[in-house]
Specification:
7 helices; Jelly Rolls; single chain; 26% helix; 262 residues; alpha+beta; binds fe (ii) ion
């Protein structure tokens, strides 16, 4: 697939600006998805995910993780997947920086996640610069998995991340819910868009392979979410992810110092 094939139509740009999300069904190629699934199994089953969380929660005691998600080949490829980079450049401009990546195999009985947004700013004060989350559903979404719901346009409000948490996972007027997506689908959210993971009511179903990767427009200083963020950016540079085209992808200068969230 060449970059030229991924010029977004004007309507997509308008929709992203106004509604705060875009959906790309079957965006990732099958071989990449298969490899990502294997790596995610390893990430979870070998305790690497648990270790990365422990290092984030208590860096004094646990230091830096033995492995980062994107140090696994397919995860690294996904982080800088050329068609995704091209789309991001059209949404944010060509200068953006990697923020973080999460990889998980979510069990069917995992509780839902109440309405929230993920725009990093403390305190929340304006929406001048874009932050985008790429939500990758390796097996898609279906009746056996939890669903995603978003509240179109809510990214234009200046609100704290949890200001709608009292609404739990409830169906809200005007929401758009995604209960069915084909394998390898990607949903791009403006990170300030309110969204929820709506669990299956019976807790029965199948695992949901879910990877999220976020990126920030440059021009301001962003709060890191990992205490080992410098290590993370250095490893991205050392691995040469994205090649020379995305010069700011792992640049430290776009970040504030790390502060534990209160
Ligand atoms: Fe979220």
């Amino acid at each position: 697939m060449s970059a030229a094939q991924l010029v977004l139509p004007e309507s997509d740009l308008r929709n992203f600006a106004e509604l705060g999300f875009l959906v790309f069904p079957s965006f990732l190629p099958d071989d990449l998805v298969s490899q990502l699934r294997l790596e995610t199994d390893k990430w979870v089953d070998a305790g690497l995910r648990a270790q990365s969380i422990a290092c984030a929660v208590d860096p004094e005691a646990n230091g830096v993780p033995d492995l980062l998600e994107f140090e696994m080949d397919a995860h690294g490829e996904l982080l800088a997947y050329p068609p995704l980079m091209d789309v991001l450049a059209q949404l944010m401009g060509p200068s953006f920086v990697f923020h973080h990546m999460h990889s998980d195999r979510q069990a069917p009985d995992l509780p839902g996640k109440a309405w929230h947004h993920d725009y990093e700013q403390s305190p929340q004060g304006e929406r001048k610069f874009a932050m985008v989350h790429a939500l990758h559903y390796l097996d898609g979404l279906d009746k056996e998995t939890s669903a995603l719901a978003v509240l179109p346009g809510s990214h234009r409000e200046v609100a704290e991340k949890l200001s709608r948490a009292h609404l739990a996972e409830n169906v809200l007027p005007g929401e758009v819910a995604f209960g069915e997506l084909p394998p390898g689908s990607t949903v791009l959210l403006h990170s300030a868009l309110f969204h929820t993971r709506r669990a299956r009511p019976d807790g029965v179903g199948k695992n949901r392979y879910f990877l999220d990767v976020s990126y920030c427009q440059t021009g301001t200083h962003w709060p890191p979410v990992k205490p080992y963020w410098r290590h993370m950016l250095r490893r991205g540079r050392e691995l040469g992810l994205g090649g020379d085209k995305w010069a700011e992808l792992f640049s430290e200068e776009h970040f504030l110092e790390y502060r534990p969230s209160s």
